Amino acid sequence: MLQYFFGLVYLSAVLLYVALTGTHAAECPLQLNPQRAVVRYNGSVSVNCSTSVQHDGIGWEASEGAVPMSRDNLITWRVSNLREWDIEPFCYINPKDGDQCSLYLPVTIYKTPDSVSISTVNHIGPMKERNQYELQCDVLNVAPVQYLTVKWYKGQTLVDQTNFTVTIKTPVNKTATLMIRPDRSDDGVQYRCEAELKLGEEGPRPPPKVTSKPLSVEVYYKPKHSSSTETINLSSEVTLNCTVKANPAPTYTWDSEHLKEKITSSVLPSSKLSPGNYTCITTNSQGSDSKVFIVRSTGRTTFWAIVITGVAVAVLLIIGYGIYKCKSSPNSVI
Ligand SMILES: *[C@@H]1O[C@H](CO)[C@@H](O)[C@H](O)[C@H]1NC(C)=O
Ligand SMILES: *[C@@H]1O[C@H](CO)[C@@H](O)[C@H](O)[C@H]1NC(C)=O
Ligand SMILES: *[C@@H]1O[C@H](CO)[C@@H](O)[C@H](O)[C@H]1NC(C)=O
Ligand SMILES: *[C@@H]1O[C@H](CO)[C@@H](O)[C@H](O)[C@H]1NC(C)=O
Ligand SMILES: *[C@@H]1O[C@H](CO)[C@@H](O)[C@H](O)[C@H]1NC(C)=O
Ligand SMILES: *[C@@H]1O[C@H](CO)[C@@H](O)[C@H](O)[C@H]1NC(C)=O
Ligand SMILES: *[C@@H]1O[C@H](CO)[C@@H](O)[C@H](O)[C@H]1NC(C)=O
């Protein structure tokens, strides 16, 4: 029991010792401000190294901007045109009680791309609906590639992004690709790619980015009517309008027993119409589609047809009656 008690006291003492000294001993008594440097290539940088403990000297070690050992409590590493991609500065201290220790400063040197361009791979000219194509984005001379994101825009919409995982500090050329399968609504749409350097909290706000010129996509698609038949009541204002969107622009032909001449217009005026069926065939290089217009006589014509028929029947009846009267009593006429 007593042994157990002493064991517990000993353990507590050890824990207390570690808490008071152990953790402090492991940490170098230096503060860097900022803790990470993000610098544009050939740009300027300054980082403070400070301490609050008694010491025999602190200093900055670096291939550029080194600060010799000093008795001050704050020293600044400063470079006005930083062009060394793999610089690794560190601040060191000789504490009054303790061994020399040092703190590395992570430095990210970035360079925005010289150019960002978009193109189609192995293809020129208009694209065909529902075929697959590859777009390519070339980013020239960018660093560091691990912070690079290539964003793809279709019109104003972000459609994809490409990240890069390699860790190379010096500028590289990178290519990102995007597979697309255009449809008829994509005719005339513009694609762009954008190279963005997401450099983190210490980096510039907003993150630097370079955007390509837009790439206009032309899509070939065949004509497609929204309905294959349409019933139309004949009147003097009515026209048959077969106009439909297609690329390249379609040609029109009309087929009907009522049409004597060949018509290539997409619209038939009422002057050419009489009740019956009119088939319009729309064609371009991608295919064709047809539509049947069923032209009906209007209620008004039917009404007049009944009236005229009625009048004709009445006239016939009267004439018939007259003839009958003449034949049955010839005396009455004289
Ligand atoms: C670096 O920047 C300075 C101006 O701050 C400029 O004169 C010099 O040409 C630049 N050098 C490079 C390699 O960009
Ligand atoms: C570094 O220290 C100097 C002097 O105290 C101060 O003016 C400057 O703002 C400090 N820089 C940073 C980044 O804290
Ligand atoms: C690329 O990184 C961004 C964040 O920076 C993330 O949202 C996105 O999902 C990543 N894309 C891929 C394909 O990993
Ligand atoms: C990137 O491409 C350009 C032009 O094609 C070339 O001049 C340059 O040397 C390339 N840079 C690298 C790092 O490959
Ligand atoms: C065509 O006429 C019929 C009656 O003959 C009528 O029911 C129909 O609504 C009319 N259609 C149009 C589009 O005017
Ligand atoms: C025919 O329809 C098209 C659209 O479908 C329209 O742009 C055009 O003005 C119409 N033409 C006539 C003569 O109504
Ligand atoms: C007109 O077309 C309709 C529907 O396609 C069909 O039912 C009708 O028989 C056709 N009429 C004539 C006169 O061809």
Automatic annotation (TrEMBL):
Keywords for this protein: Membrane, Signal, Transmembrane, Transmembrane helix
Protein name: Ig-like domain-containing protein
InterPro entries in the cross-refs: ICAM_N (IPR013768), ICAM_VCAM (IPR047012), Ig-like_dom (IPR007110), Ig-like_dom_sf (IPR036179), Ig-like_fold (IPR013783), Ig_I-set (IPR013098)
Chain segments annotated as transmembrane: 303-324
Domain Ig-like, chain residue ranges per copy: 113-196, 208-296
GO molecular function, one term: integrin binding
Entries under Pfam families matching the protein: I-set, ICAM_N, Ig_2
Species this protein is from: Culter alburnus (Topmouth culter)
Gene3D superfamilies (UniProt xref): Immunoglobulins
Signal sequence annotation: 1-25
Top-level taxon: Eukaryota
GO biological process: cell adhesion
